[in-house]
């Protein structure tokens, strides 16, 4: 039955809708709305039946109270979902609807005691996770302590602060020691603690971010230098290889001499060899050597 739209200027937008869970939280929100609309007393005390012999002034006052009661009942209808609305549909006054919800979902003292024991155990086992921020962890802890308060167990700010300081992760060890040494935990507020821890958290994140950027730049520079050195090394090897090839092609007599060295001990008869034959051999050898060196 919830209506999320703002009606003229009388009701705030996004009214809290009760879905059967977290009744105490919803109840606290509803009381604020009732005070804003000046109908809280009407919801709690109800409207007394008008006496048959009442005078005109009393009748006028009673009529105004009935209008407030109707407004309060309308607000309750707007702040419950259809399943919850079925349980209060027959109630004709706001007090009746409010008391029905309280008796159904508020729980008696015995049920609250059982629920409180479970909440206390959960509170004692609570630790900050590595992935959590300070804001997320404190919100989780305060949500739990508020549930404990609704069951009759109210914790002081000092108890909450000491719990937080005991259960933070290792990266907050230095700031924890500083707070314990410099602050008076008896007078410190949970808001002050959150501000100090979030400031430290922000510094740690900034330093980690700067360090990551520096490492990335350094790795990029090293990679670029390595590629440059490798490029120049390959170019130098290519130039040396080309230079050696040109040197061998330009001066084949050394290789020729080396090749002919193996025939120096061979006894070649000179009488039957003409000058033309020597020229033929030398010309062919030179041509063959030049082709081999160029290929």
Structure description:
- Pfam families: Retrotran_gag_2 (PF14223).
- This is DUF4219 domain-containing protein.
- It comes from Trifolium subterraneum.
- Keywords: Coiled coil.
- The protein is built from twelve helices and no strands.
- It is an all-alpha fold and 295 residues long.
- It folds into three domains: 84 residues, no CATH class; 92 residues; 45 residues, no CATH class.
Number of strands: 0
Strand content: under 5%
Could you report the average pLDDT, rounded to the nearest whole number? Answer: 79
Count up the helices: 12
Radius of gyration: 47 Å
| Biggest sheet overview | none
Short description:
By secondary structure, this protein is an all-alpha fold. It has helices at residues 23-36, 40-45, 56-78, 82-88, 94-106, 109-125, 134-150, 157-167, 173-182, 190-250, 253-261, 275-294. Helix 3 (56-78) crosses helix 5 and helix 6 runs antiparallel to helix 7.
How are the SSEs ordered, and which strands pair?
Elements: H1 23-36, H2 40-45, H3 56-78, H4 82-88, H5 94-106, H6 109-125, H7 134-150, H8 157-167, H9 173-182, H10 190-250, H11 253-261, H12 275-294
Helix pairs in contact: 3-5, 6-7
Pfam families: Retrotran_gag_2
Protein name: DUF4219 domain-containing protein
Organism: Trifolium subterraneum (Subterranean clover)
